[in-house]
Amino acid sequence: NPFAGLVSHLRASWLSGKMQSMEYRVTQLEALEHFLDDKKQEILDATASDLGKAPFETELSEIFLCKNELHETLNNLSRWMKDEHVDRTLALQLDSAFIRKEPYGVVLIIAPWNYPIQLFLVPLIGAIAAGNCVIVKPSEVSKKTERLVAEVLPGYLDKDCFAVVTGGMQDTTRLLENKFDYIFFTGSPPVGRIVMTAAAKHLTPVTLELGGKNPCYVSDTCDVTNVARRVAWGRFFNAGQTCIAPDYLLCTVEMQEKLLPALRKAIDDFYGPNPQESPDFGRIVSDKQFRRLQALLGSGRVAIGGQTDEAERYIAPTVLADVLPSDPAMQEEIFGPILPIVVIANMDEAIDFINSRERPLTIYAFSSNNKVVNQVLERTSSGGFCGNDTLMHVTLTSLPFGGIGNSGLGMYHGKFSFDTFSHRRGCLKRGMGREPLNAPRYPPYSQQNFRVIRATSRVTRKNDCTLL
Amino acid sequence: MERTQQIMGRARATFNSGRSRPLEFRIQQLKALERMVQEKEKEILAALKADLNKCGHNAYSQEILGVLRELILTMEKLPSWAAPQPVKKDLLSIRDEAYISYEPLGVVLVIGAWNYPFVLVMQPLIGAIAAGNAVVVKPSEVSENTAQLLAELLPQYLDKDLYPVVTGGVPETTELLTQRFDHILYTGNTAVGRIVMSAAAKHLTPVTLELGGKSPCYIDKDCDLAVACRRITWGKYMNCGQTCIAPDYILCDPSIQGKVVENIKATLKEFYGEDVKSSPDYERIVNKRHFRRVKSLLEGQKIAHGGETDEASCFIAPTILTDVSPESKVMEEEIFGPVLPIVTVQSLDEAIEFINHREKPLALYVFSNNKQLIRRVISETSSGGMTANDVIMHSVVPDLPFGGVGHSGMGAYHGKFSFETFSHRRACLIKDLKLEVVNKLRYPPGSMEVMHL
Predict the structure, then answer these.
(1) Given an 8 Å threshold on Cβ–Cβ distance, is B399 in contact with A87?
(2) Does residue B95 belong to the interface with chain A, where contact is any CB pair within 8 Å?
(3) Which residue from A36, B45, B197, B442 puts its CA 20 to 30 A from A234's CA?
(4) Which fold would CATH assign to domain A3-211+410-423?
(5) Angle between helices A65-81 and A118-129 (to 10 degrees)
(6) This prediction's pTM
(7) CATH C-level class of A215-403
(8) What is the pLDDT of residues A323-358, one digit of tens each?
(9) Which of these is catalytic: B34, B144, B210, B334?
């Protein structure tokens, strides 16, 4: 077991208690901010190399969002760490009952390749804030970023408590043989199953941020121009390689006709007449993913885009019209710059369509009529929901980010990260005095004692009248 | 098995129809449960007596009282728990609606345990119903009278399609675990906990595991030994030691070991009289298998008190072992019986190290007059929950989460925590389709100046 030594070293550091103090956690968190500031150019270069990411996209999704999380955490850490005192029953009035937040121990964070900084850094912020030691396993698919993180990040953090492990599937499998106290995984559902199965052997709790096909319903009453822009932005950001991207559109055939020219215009506004030349449009991360996406282009008919360039792993911002539920593009999460449109007759049909499939990470609904948006919201289930826009619900640190069913379990962002990586320990401190008050609970039992117990520890309905 | 498929199919179809979602429906079901507990109190007490020889007082205070309290609390608070929770917005979302919506998960599975067979099914069931789910209930077959009773009563009072009861042993449970649930709450032992989580992993089903372990009890030299020992005796020997949060073993300085034994002995006499076997307030081990298991833990040990057993009636006397070696069998597994080993330690440091070298327990106890010492124990150890200067009691505070950590479990429930466990917290952001001008900033062609706004 090549990683056993590392894991036990980190566990020993955690047991030593050095991570307990707020000051310690703050220094580590501030070091993360230094990493983002000092190495900004290197991050821009690495993500450009791995994914053809435009500097603007990297700044926004990999640096800015992380800094928001850092600041939110630093601003609130002392409050989050405090013991939470709770109400007590009459019998325990003179005692102290509170919830203490404790770290789990050694945490493993497994990150994917599509937002290679954000998707390890934001969980890492939560894990550190909660007082855990962490092993970070960045994705080997985003090679340059993996090397950057492995070579540079350890220099910013306490080497006794934090480590970066690199490698492929085999190394991850060996890593998962070790006992961790929490595992945070972002990736695909099949691998999520593997991670959870490995975690089960050690009874390790997990958070799984997975994926699925995020439906985007566009009603007939809407501002088509705005819808097209917001949907195009969400779909083609990072060349479509976003777990919360709108995966496919559901609309009537009339709306499809109106949307196509609007989408064409939005794409032209964003990326110019030849997106391959735009500095703002990304590339597919690997040959394997490129070929997978290419195969989806045969679904429906190509209404916009469709061009590809294998040498550059470029796939044009593409819209497929009249796609059938049985088409290849509707069988798997697309995770690329291809937007299929599936025609339905009305909102009810759209809702039934959504409900007959696995619950996705996100559901989108566009309508000028708020009732329509709320109907879709109330009659479906998903990790999160955004009405009249895409992607934005995950930028609010006060909203939890997580899936349900096949799209994942658990959640994070903001305080939810801190809570995810904390064990909430129920604590009761009693005094040794007043022992006679305990007498009713001891044997030998009598009816009278029992009445006293009932009276002093019951929770009464507000409109009940209790005479002791 | 076909029957399981049918039950699952019906529960899921009914859930999908939306029947369990309206608050009025959920409260109506909870009221029906309240009626059931009140109307069938005699039957419930009889089942508990048959399964565990629990006397009426114990059965009522340990199982029924808790359930009634949970029902009242839940019905009272449900409207506020279930209400959408608005969240803090930023500049960009100032005109939007941003909130967390509490939604049911779907069809959940509650697997009960045999030691508190009524409350350990009812309390999770209450939370699952409150959160709007369909619930498949699987009581433990070991406490067969309570299992039978639940199978008869629940369909009489609750919606038959949404809340089916499945009885049976290992084969039935294994079959059930192949089905796809949206959450599983399991109470039981660590080994089976692993099996449940592995089965859940195939469907990516979230789990709450209420397991066990050896809950340590540290007694400081500076404490009122008489009081401490009375409280410990109560918590250790209730339900014949078959309590997941019973103080499993004692850690103390060798100089007070003798006094601890004397005090516990005196308390035992007070509680159960000279002849424990004839006290109506002392329970029995649940079955022969567990009887033999607990009895075997006594081999080679120094018995300071008790030790008498009677297989025919599954009776094991309240027993104290002294100078126990950390390597002995009684210190390896959770005892779950009326046997209390005392392990001596030379200092608080040694006690803390002893505790930390073992799996994280479900509960941890410390008795001391020294507040500083108590604070140290809390901050240098980890456990599901803990009580200082008493035992068991943290589990009855309605607003404290009840759950384990590490090998003692994951997740928590009771009160509001039950509701949250069985709910999905869905992030909702509703924006306006107008006001596109604000969005222009984020669209390509992006400029670096925009970033620094």
Answers:
(1) yes
(2) no
(3) A36
(4) Aldehyde Dehydrogenase; Chain A, domain 1 (3.40.605)
(5) 10
(6) 0.96
(7) alpha beta
(8) 999 999 999 999 999 999 999 999 999 999 999 999
(9) B210
